[in-house]
Amino acid sequence: MKASQFFVSTLKEAPADAEVVSHKLMTRAGLIKKLGAGIYTYMPMGLRVIRKVEAIVREEMNRAGAVECTMPVVQPGELWQETGRFEKMGPELLRIRDRHGRDFVVQPTSEEVITDIARQELRSYKQLPRNFYQIQTKFRDERRPRFGLMRGREFTMKDAYSFDRNPEAAKASYQVMAQAYRRIFDRFGLTYRAVAADSGAIGGDLSEEFQVIAATGEDAIVYCPASDYAANMEKAESAPPTGPRPAPAQAQTLTPTPGKATCADVAALLGVPLASTVKSLVLATDTLDEDGNVTASQVWLLLLRGDHDMNEVKVSKLPGLDVGFRFATLAEIQSHFGTEPGYLGPLGLLQPVKVVADREVAVMADWICGANRKDYHITGVNWGRDLPEPDLVADLRNVVAGDPSPDGKGALAIERGIEVGHVFYLGTKYSKAMNATFLAEDGKPAFFEMGCYGIGITRLPAAAIEQNHDERGIIWPDAIAPFTVVICPIGMDRSEAVKAAAGQLYAELLAAGVDVILDDRGERPGAMFADWELIGVPHRVTIGDKGLKDGKVEYQHRRDSAATAVDVSQMADLLRSKLAV
Amino acid sequence: MKASQFFVSTLKEAPADAEVVSHKLMTRAGLIKKLGAGIYTYMPMGLRVIRKVEAIVREEMNRAGAVECTMPVVQPGELWQETGRFEKMGPELLRIRDRHGRDFVVQPTSEEVITDIARQELRSYKQLPRNFYQIQTKFRDERRPRFGLMRGREFTMKDAYSFDRNPEAAKASYQVMAQAYRRIFDRFGLTYRAVAADSGAIGGDLSEEFQVIAATGEDAIVYCPASDYAANMEKAESAPPTGPRPAPAQAQTLTPTPGKATCADVAALLGVPLASTVKSLVLATDTLDEDGNVTASQVWLLLLRGDHDMNEVKVSKLPGLDVGFRFATLAEIQSHFGTEPGYLGPLGLLQPVKVVADREVAVMADWICGANRKDYHITGVNWGRDLPEPDLVADLRNVVAGDPSPDGKGALAIERGIEVGHVFYLGTKYSKAMNATFLAEDGKPAFFEMGCYGIGITRLPAAAIEQNHDERGIIWPDAIAPFTVVICPIGMDRSEAVKAAAGQLYAELLAAGVDVILDDRGERPGAMFADWELIGVPHRVTIGDKGLKDGKVEYQHRRDSAATAVDVSQMADLLRSKLAV
To answer: Considering the domain B3-237+414-465, what is its CATH architecture?
Structure first.
């Protein structure tokens, strides 16, 4: 490609609404152009990146035996009513009425449509396993779209759906996809981690997220540097405490802590480690009658070490809390604890509550908690002596860096990631809701066992940039760069020698299948270099009269701090070897 | 591709709602699957065809210097309000409100968005010419979607938009696109015709439709077999009459024609040629005040030869009628003609009307028209003698087969076509509405001169099928077939020889870059052949034990009535030569 025949458009300044570096750089480099909140045009330079991402995904999906189709963007509401998602999804689901007043949605995913196709097309177990995928426009009406392509409203997703005859076969299909995802992410040339994720009501370990590692990532990722353990924060188990509970050594003492409503403040005031304090979280569960009216409520007190945070996913699975919990109201707190949040604790309650202690809290002695009296805490609290053992002891907390790995192979570390892929075993959730069956080997109808597998095609370039950039701009991995090589001729309009050398290298690289752009726009060197550094083309060749006199041109990788002189006759070979073409 | 790893799904019966052959065959061959009215999933077999169409379009658009981008499917209503299309487009435009109550549309085309991009990105004449295109999902909420992909609601279109500094440059850009379209349609391997189309208010000849010729086409196409004249029916001019008007030979006579309200009936009753009768069409135009209320109306009488039809586009451009016309009401007809339609004519009017005669009517003598009296016509009518010369003489009619070509090079013929492409010079229609300017060479802002260029990507396969099919199914041209070659092994599971020969040919063809599918499903020969004939793969190789004994396999083109025995060692070469790979 010659730059004069392409569309190169860069900006000095990032738009005012760009908060993250990928959004800033994608806009400045002319990859995307905002049309509305969370809605972007993929400009020619950006579309090249997206097409390369698509091509890698497509190749590996095909290799893994998935078959591509394209489902409609606009989908009938009735199908979405079959699974209840038409109502359940809330305002994120963009709903439309057509000219005849019929309900439609703009697809956020396509479980309903593909299950509808499967129940019509896959009639026998002999047609299974089957995996359909599409790379197609999606829409989620985010309440607060931001971060450019990172959390847009319109986006492109690769979504795949597997259909199997039984759970074992479905799990095998899942593993095939998980492996394909590893190949895909390897090929992107990004640093990523596949982490175990929560699989919701289905259970088991068949849910993994593919996270591109970046300091700016929204998600906390837990991993063990000494083993292959990796999970997202929701999912990561904390290892059970090792030692037994120490014997009480202190007396229970009411201690004034005026205005100190947090564990951190109390620990600082008393000069004790934060880990010796216990925080109280008050939840509630409701019993409903047939009409959905609340007939009774139960108040729960969760106790966590002061330096730990509650993990809502873990809590949502505890017996009694798995019906769905909420935070207690101020009235409930007052009526049970007799005081306001900030000074709550398990001692001296006005009404009984269910006490759930994190495993770490259950092995503490001489701990500190709120006194259920404003401006007071109690120190030297001990289980058994001062209060009964908790009703339930469980893993309630997010892990923290340094926690022992649950596989016993070292300490956990935490880093940030951007989720760009997810593989998920669905079981029969959708097939049962939509009565999607096939004839099993025994001649009876059976529900499809399903899996779903997504990759955020347009999110991936943003994640790649969050991971790979510097103060001058983007640094693309070769595989998804808009162009792999840029040739920058200096004074091409004045020098026949430069023009000839640039033209010859360009032709040689094209012939070798290298995705090269020749910058023939006639820009001055400074502006030209700044453009390509901003755009992030990984390999640059500079050709000028000065070097050519000695038969030299310059090579510089986008990460190199300086250029290297190379014999003009060697440059094509050098690039071919670097690019392995 | 091996069929066992692909998704082959055929149906014996077409769906009840399929009216046209392409809809029937695309559904039966498993290319598409209906999701809702006018909304289809492109199944794996169909998507392959669409991808090949896209690839050809993309290659030729790139070759012609257009640059690909992707504009959003969901577009803000405000932009559409700038051009007035948000209101004007009526219910065909699918409108959405997002969660914040803001108006959006699902794009039917993208003039507004690309003009918005141009007014931001193209600041100087130095950046022109520029042509952006996309291949993207579109939606038109057709009142009556039907004919499968031929008139669907959701579809894929390639839409390109050119921006130029002046009309001459814009016309040059238009010609570049028109040439690219010819290359594209040549490559599809279809019989097509580029025909002049009406260019609306802009005038000139810079509007062409690309019509795939098919007996079932919706559009009438006019062409001259002896020259390169071709136009759609709306646009096709009739040549002016040659001879002068003959002198009157008959007396004007009131003739009873009881119950004969059409020219055809009258001609039959009187035993005269239809071409000696004149039909009367009554139109009206309204004068409006500032508030849009009608303050006055003018009635028009259009006179056409009994064997001719009115051309609304031509009539809409006549002076006085170009403000917008309607058919007259029954009350207006009664008050001016004193009778009801069926017996109208230009003689003996109650109130004056403007009389417009088609050029052919203006040179008639001794003609027959309604008497403005029920059940009566007048014969022997003559201009000048019986009534004044018409207020206006013009080309009002559709041409008919046998009319002289307007280029004077022979007689016109008419055939049917399916419009799959359109190139159009827009002028400054959108740039003026959206105040989209660039700095011209004189340093002053100037409006972009634009063109737009569409290809119905998902309509094209349907048009190809309308043109190329037989009672057994589809017959694809090589370029857009889902697979170019199918290998059908007979008894592959029983015969090692068949399996080996099929596997070897498959590998050889793959290596040669042939898009081949090996049918390893184990279907019986009859079902296997029926499937591939229905699907329409153009080249078939059959491999069986019987032939292999003599070192032979069979080749059959989808259009051949019988197979040809070919040496197994020659088959790959034969296919390579047929496919020119």
So the answer is: 2-Layer Sandwich (3.30)
Interface of B with A in 7-26 (CB under 8 A): 7, 9
Q: Which of A320, A327, A369 is nearest to A349 (CA)?
A: A369
CB B478 within 8 A of CB B484: yes
Q: How crowded is residue B81: how many other Cβ atoms within 10 Å of its Cβ?
A: 13
Task: Look up the ipTM and state it.
Answer: 0.91
Note the pLDDT of residue B203.
Answer: 58
Is A47 within 8 Å of B70 when comparing Cβ atoms? yes
Using one digit for the tens of pLDDT, what is the confidence trace for A91-116?
A: 999 999 999 999 999 999 999 999 99
Q: pLDDT tens digit string along B186-218?
A: 999 999 999 999 877 665 669 999 999 999 898
* Cβ-Cβ contacts under 8 Å for A300 (sequence gap 6 or more): A282, A283, A284, A285, A320, A321, A325, A328, A353, A354, A355, A356
Which B-chain residues 147-186 have CB contacts (< 8 A) with chain A? 153-154
Q: Residue A44: closest CA among chain B residues belongs to which residue? A: B69
CB–CB of A423/A175 below 8 Å? no
Chain region(s) in chain A for CATH 3.30.930.10: 13-210+421-465
pLDDT band at A261 (very low <50, low <70, confident <90, very high): very high
- B contacts of A92 (beta carbons < 8 Å): 99
At the top level of CATH, which class does the domain A483-579 belong to?
alpha beta
pLDDT at position B509 is 96
User: Residue B295 CB: number of other CB atoms within 10 A?
Assistant: 9
The CATH 3.40.50.800 domain(s) of chain B lie at 483-579
Superfamily of domain A253-394, CATH level 4: YbaK/aminoacyl-tRNA synthetase-associated domain (3.90.960.10)
Parts of chain B belonging to CATH 3.90.960.10: 253-394
Q: Is B33 in CB contact (< 8 Å) with chain A? A: yes
Residue A360's identity, in one-letter code, is E
Is the minimum CB–CB distance between B559 and chain A shorter than 8 Å? no
Q: Does A60 touch chain B (CB under 8 A)?
A: no
Tally C-beta pairs within 8 A across A and B: 135
Residue B112 at interface with chain A, using a CB cutoff of 8 Å: no
Of A332, A340, A333, nearest in space to A373 by CA: A340
Chain A interface includes B101 (CB < 8 A): no
CATH architecture classification, A13-210+421-465: 2-Layer Sandwich (3.30)
* Distance to chain A for B113, nearest Cα, Å: 8
Whether chain B has a CB inside 8 Å of the CB on A69: the answer is yes
Measured between beta carbons, the chain A residues lying within 8 angstroms of B113 are 35, 41
Distance CA A107, CA A113 (A): 10
Of residues B6, B50, B121, nearest to A67 (C-beta): B6
